[in-house]
Automatic annotation (TrEMBL):
One GO cellular component, as annotated: plasma membrane
PROSITE patterns per the UniProt record, alphabetical: ABC_TM1
ABC transmembrane type-1 domain location: 75-270
Protein name: Carbohydrate ABC transporter permease
Gene3D superfamilies: MetI-like
Keywords, alphabetical: Cell membrane, Membrane, Transmembrane, Transmembrane helix, Transport
GO biological process: transmembrane transport
Length: 293
């Protein structure tokens, strides 16, 4: 029977307490938002706008959101940028990583230096805005996609991953007459799937949660993504559209706070649904990239 010393027991107890506190700290805001989103207006006022588990839950807020054309339209825009953006970024980033992983590439170190410089240095908001304006992307949905087409950090992670693949695989493929494209698509990409899943998840979350680029580059409020609409709701800004104004109007059933919390929950659901499918690859990709790097 394994015997634990007193110091070991104290250490394990402290660690368990810390982990429990961290878990509670992470889960509590989500439980609070979920509870507030199904609370009636009367109970909200009665309990001073702090409800964890409502006594009489209601789905009225979700019904109003589902009936809102503004929320659905912004949701589809977020789906568009969170699908097209990461896919294009992952494709270009992976191609760039594969090219830079070739040790015989002329000027390879210079290219790596410039890529590393983009991680350490940033042009700033105003120069970026001027570039977007000169490209004619102001008030275009592509203004939220094209500036993020290449992930410098992800490129370096995938490059390190590809560099540490067995050399025999690449060499045998070339001996068999495989082209660079065939080697890339049939060997490098499948073997680097864990790293690609991790970087893809980073890009997906970044696109889904982003709203500041929409604030800078979009003048038409009908093109706002869901997070921008949610930001306007939470900051009590004016929101265009009779449907949205009607949804936010206080009634006997639910309050405006309930509507806001319900919208937050709807904004969280897609990421919560995607993450479990990528978690295994995400952990493996980050672990191998860190160890092999």
């Amino acid at each position: 029977m394994f015997y634990k010393s007193r110091s070991e027991i104290i250490y394990q107890t402290i660690i368990h307490i810390i982990v429990i506190l961290v878990a509670v700290t992470a889960v509590f805001p989500l439980v609070y938002v979920l509870g507030m989103s199904i609370t009636t207006k009367a109970e909200m006022i009665q309990r001073n706008y702090f409800v964890i588990i409502p006594k009489e839950p209601t789905l009225e807020a979700y019904k109003r959101i589902m009936a809102s054309s503004v929320v659905w339209h912004s949701f589809l825009i977020s789906v568009f940028r969170s699908t097209v953006g990461p896919l294009l970024a992952l494709a270009l980033t992976t191609i760039g990583a594969y090219v830079l992983a070739q040790r015989t590439l002329p000027g390879r170190n210079l290219f790596l230096f410039f890529i590393l410089a983009t991680i350490l240095l940033n042009g700033g908001m105003i120069p970026t805005y001027l570039v977007i304006k000169q490209l004619g992307l102001i008030n275009s949905l592509w203004s939220m996609v094209l500036p993020l087409l290449v992930d410098s950090f992800g490129l370096l992670v995938i490059k390190i991953f590809i560099e540490n693949l067995p050399d025999g695989l690449i060499e045998s493929a070339k001996i068999d007459g495989a082209s660079e494209w065939s080697t890339f698509t049939r060997i490098a990409v499948p073997l680097a799937a864990p790293a690609l899943a991790a970087i893809g998840l980073f890009n997906l979350v970044a696109h889904w949660n982003s709203w500041f680029d929409a604030l800078l580059y979009l003048n038409d409020k009908s093109k706002y993504p869901l997070q921008m609409v949610l930001k306007n709701m939470l900051t009590v800004d004016s929101i265009s559209g009779d449907n949205m104004n009607g949804m936010l109007k206080s009634t006997q059933a639910v309050s405006t706070e309930t509507i806001k919390m319900a919208t937050v929950v709807i904004g969280l659901v897609p990421i919560l649904c995607v993450y479990p499918f990528l978690q295994k690859h995400f952990v493996k990709g980050m672990y191998l990239g860190a160890v092999k790097g």
